[in-house]
Amino acid sequence: MSAVCVGSADELKEAGRKVFDLEGTEIGVFHHEGAFYAWHNNCPHQGGPVCQGRLFRLVEEEVEANRETRGRRYHESRVNIVCPWHGIEYDVKTGQFPGNPAMALTPAKVYVENGEVFLDV
Amino acid sequence: MNDPATSLHTLAPKPIREIDTYSDSRDILAHSKREAQLKGYSDWLICDVDAHHVETVSWNEVVKYIEDPVLRDQADTYHKERTGAPPYGLNGDLGMRYQDVGGRIPHQSDRREKVETKTTHRDVVLTRRAMDGLSVDHMVLFPTPMLHLGLHPQPEMEVALAQAYNMWLTDRILSEDDGIVTLVYLPFNTPEEACRTVERFANKKGVIGFCVTSARHKPLHSNEYMKLYRMIEETGKPIAFHAGYHWQDPSLQTLPNFLSVHALGFVWCSMVMLTNWILSGIPEKFPKLKSIWVESGVAWIPALMQRLDDQYLMRQSEAPLLKRMPSDYMRENCWYTCQPMEKSNMKALELSFEMIKADTQLLYASDWPHFDFDTPGVIHDLPFLDETAKRNILGLNAARLFGLPTEKRQNKFILD
After folding, report:
1. CA B90, CA B171: separation in Å to the nearest integer?
2. What pLDDT does residue B412 have?
3. Phi-psi region of B121 (alpha: psi -120 to 50; beta: other; left: phi over 0)
4. How far apart are the first and last CA of chain A?
5. CATH code assigned to B25-402
6. Does B81 touch chain A (CB under 8 A)?
7. Which of B7, B10, B16 to mutate to test the interface with A (most CBs of A within 10 A)?
């Protein structure tokens, strides 16, 4: 296991997301709500470059007490990584697909020391 | 370091860019190419029986091939004098193109990648990049917006645009690469013109069969098509029915979103057309005519087999031409493309493969660049298939069906 410095925490916070090729191992680093998360860049569906996809807030549907729906809306804070191959969405914090938590991204260890972000590879 | 067993590595992390509508196909498909190298596809023949280009990007070129001089002039003027207008003469879904799920799948939204070459057509360049990324030797190219052309209110416009497209495709695209082939569009609403299409294009370079787009309303078992089927049978080339969704179909109008209309629409039109194909006895009338059922996945086929067998037993007098069970014809006389292959229940998929005799009847298809494309890995990684079956489905079944070389292409092209 090697620790690899991938940049300053400030830089990565500002970027929000960066994806790195570490000698064949591809890892995406995400900053969301004050914390860093890192996921391997392989979609469990068909192996797509999931971390290179766009970020979208989770879409939810409002249902009232009488069970009538009031249409879709974006969640205020939950953000999904969307695989650009097929559009499969994963929560940036948990790595889970909203419709089936068993389908999830593979995590990578990420931490900050002395203002630098490190990945264990 | 947090973990004492971890050592500091000095390698320079190489940044990888986000994928957007400007990304190069080779970057988008880099993982597919890497998978092919890891799994050793280098000696596997791979035929992709269903991939697409967006013919409307080149529509101003296509309309120059319209035979009718008045229509051709109108189309030319239309494209010169209007900006932002949809392609001349085409019906279809205009802005109801929700395939990219609101921008989540950029390669489905648009492909604005750079194509620098001035000598090779853009569609050839993009197709070659996709072939390289998917490790494909032969790619069968279909149009995209024209999949709705069978619903055009003017049958003569279907004829005019189909013939122009076929001429343009064979002249500008297929002529440039032996690996890019097509199933030529039949203007099926006008049977005599469909026959003329067979006469004109059967022996053109790169034409390996004929295609009926399935979103249409004419009954394919009508007597007016018998001459067409006989002509196609005599060419020895197959006829394909390419599925499509059609939201205006009354049976689908309650569906509220693209997810549901796409899930059902493709399968529904295939079920209707294949039911008519089988129960009207076309495989008995034309025993050497090979049919291919394109882009509805696999799961619908066993369901239809059981359904037709069950009902046929009780109502044989309504399908008197049949000498075998409907499922026998579906297994012996029909071929199927696998995409989008349903994989959530592996046992069901295995049984489906067994029921349709996938070893000989199933054909790999990517459907690239559409949102539900499949890489060759969907077949290569199946746990219940032996290597012979995998090789058949990924390429050899198609090579035998279309009369393509069964060897892997060597030095197939230089990528631009």
Report:
1. 21
2. 74
3. beta
4. 6
5. 3.20.20.140
6. no
7. B16
Between A and B, how many residue pairs show a Cβ–Cβ distance under 8 A? 100
Cα B391 to the chain's mean position, in Å?
20
Over residues B114-135, the pLDDT tens digits come to: 999 889 999 999 999 999 999 9
What is the pLDDT at residue B1? 46
What is the mean predicted confidence (pLDDT) over B216-227? 96
Q: Residue A27 belongs to what H/E stretch?
A: strand A25-32
Residues of B in contact with A3 (CB under 8 A): 1, 6-9
CB contact under 8 A, A4 and B373: no
Tokens 């067994």 belong to residue: B354
- Considering the entire predicted model, what is its pTM? 0.96
User: What was the pLDDT predicted at B118?
Assistant: 85
Residue B4 clears pLDDT 60, i.e. is over it: no
Task: Look up residue B24 and give its amino acid.
Answer: D
In chain A, how many domains are there? Answer: 1
Where in the sequence is the domain holding A32, given as residue range(s)?
3-120
What's the CATH number where A82 sits? 2.102.10.10
Q: Cα separations (Å) of B89 from A88, B70, B79, B144, B146?
A: 36, 13, 11, 15, 11
Average pLDDT, chain B: 95
* Tally of CB atoms within 10 A around B242: 27
Residue A111: strand pairing partners? A118
User: How far apart are the CA of A65 and the nearest CA of chain B, in angstroms?
Assistant: 22
Three-class SS of chain B: CCCCCCEEECCCCEEECCCCCCCCHHHHCHHHHHHHHHHCHHHCCCEEEEEECCHHHHHHHHHHHCCCHHHHHHHHHHHHHCCCCCCCCCCCCCCCCCCCCCCCCHHHHCCCCCCCCCCCCHHHHHHHHHHHHHCCCEEEEECCHHHHHHHCCCHHHHHHHHHHHHHHHHHHHHHHCCCEEEEEECCCCCHHHHHHHHHHHCCCCCEEEEEEECCCCCCCCCHHHHHHHHHHHHHCCCEEEECCCCCCCHHHCCCCCHHHHHHHHHHHHHHHHHHHHHHCCHHHHCCCCCEEEECCCCCHHHHHHHHHHHHHHHCHHHCCCCCCCHHHHHHHCEEEECCCCCCCCHHHHHHHHHHCCHHHHEECCCCCCCCCCCCCHHHHCCCCCCHHHHHHHHHHHHHHHHCCCCCCCCCCCCCC
Give, for all 121 residues of chain A, the pLDDT tens digit.
789 999 999 999 999 999 999 999 999 999 999 999 999 999 999 999 999 999 999 999 999 999 999 999 999 999 999 999 999 999 999 999 999 999 999 999 999 999 999 999 8
Domain ranges of chain B: 25-402
